[in-house]
């Protein structure tokens, strides 16, 4: 299928329908996030897990439908930079939380 | 990028410059991502350090949060429609969609400033506790980015007025702003999930 959403420059820029699909998905995921917290139907850890999954899926929806991330040779360096950033930020956040939790335990501030 | 120049694909090589500009802006966004990552890490560490001050349950409310989220999400899709119009060179339509995006973004910033003003007036300013310092730093950094985006939108609207075509340079500016605006919406997903909703469980 020749992709009508790809301009001559190789930058994919989406169509009205792809933006609408992304928007509807984003609205559903947002409403679910709010709903799961407002309804108090799950235990706190369960709620947090569901929230995390919903947020992750919504980020992926935005990346795909709004930022048009995807395969293709034009996008390769964008994707490499993105993967590096995700790895870097994960180490940063997980490492910080891990180290600081240990610190406060050993300092007995908790 | 060096790889791409040695393997010219049909119709791509003459637009190589454009790809470099957009790629450069993408790299900037990745560094911005690291700034927000650091602020999220700080917030994660300090989120329970209330120092006897107000807790998220007393401070946050679903109504305002939902409205802010709705405005930002809507502005994302209106900007997308603007980009589609730009690719069809429908300039008046581009300006109209940019204007709608601007108003939605302005509504978001307005709601956020109002929320902050209420909190500070109630004695829950950034100096009250470590939790509030981390909260204000993270959320206002995002708000500041949105404000910069608003200035950028107005600038492009003014530059587009009275023109009859969209040169490549202008298209680059619109594409970079599109990446910036959608990126801010992604950051907001993390903010409303981990800063607001996770604190209100």
TrEMBL record, chain A:
It is found in: Cell membrane. It is a multi-pass membrane protein. The chain crosses the membrane at residues 16-36, 48-67, 79-101. GO terms for molecular function: cytochrome bo3 ubiquinol oxidase activity; proton transmembrane transporter activity. InterPro entries: Cyt_c_oxidase_su4_prok (IPR005171), Cyt_o_ubiqinol_oxidase_su4 (IPR014210), Cytochrome_c_oxidase_bac_sub4 (IPR050968). GO terms for biological process: aerobic electron transport chain; electron transport coupled proton transport. One of its GO terms (cellular component) is cytochrome o ubiquinol oxidase complex. Keywords: Cell membrane, Electron transport, Membrane, Oxidoreductase, Transmembrane, Transmembrane helix, Transport. The keyword Cell membrane applies. Its main location: membrane. Cytochrome bo(3) ubiquinol terminal oxidase is the component of the aerobic respiratory chain of E.coli that predominates when cells are grown at high aeration. Has proton pump activity across the membrane in addition to electron transfer, pumping 2 protons/electron. Belongs to the cytochrome c oxidase bacterial subunit 4 family. Heterooctamer of two A chains, two B chains, two C chains and two D chains. This is Cytochrome bo(3) ubiquinol oxidase subunit 4. It comes from Acetobacter fabarum.
Automatic annotation (TrEMBL), chain B:
GO terms for biological process: aerobic electron transport chain. The chain crosses the membrane at residues 21-45, 65-82, 94-111, 131-158, 179-197. Keywords: Cell membrane, Electron transport, Membrane, Oxidoreductase, Transmembrane, Transmembrane helix, Transport. Gene3D superfamilies: Cytochrome c oxidase, subunit III, four-helix bundle (1.20.120.80). One of its GO terms (molecular function) is cytochrome-c oxidase activity. It is a multi-pass membrane protein. InterPro entries: Cyt_c/ubiquinol_Oxase_su3, Cyt_c_oxidase-like_su3, Cyt_c_oxidase_su3-like_sf, Cyt_c_oxidase_su3_a-hlx, Cyt_c_ubiqinol_oxidase_su3, Ubiquinol_oxase_su3_dom. Residues 1-200 form the Heme-copper oxidase subunit III family profile domain. It is found in: Cell membrane. It holds the Pfam family COX3. Its main location: membrane. GO terms for cellular component: plasma membrane. Cytochrome bo(3) ubiquinol terminal oxidase is the component of the aerobic respiratory chain of E.coli that predominates when cells are grown at high aeration. Has proton pump activity across the membrane in addition to electron transfer, pumping 2 protons/electron. Belongs to the cytochrome c oxidase subunit 3 family. NCBIfam families: CyoC. Heterooctamer of two A chains, two B chains, two C chains and two D chains. This is Cytochrome bo(3) ubiquinol oxidase subunit 3. The lineage of its organism: Bacteria, Pseudomonadati, Pseudomonadota, Alphaproteobacteria, Acetobacterales.
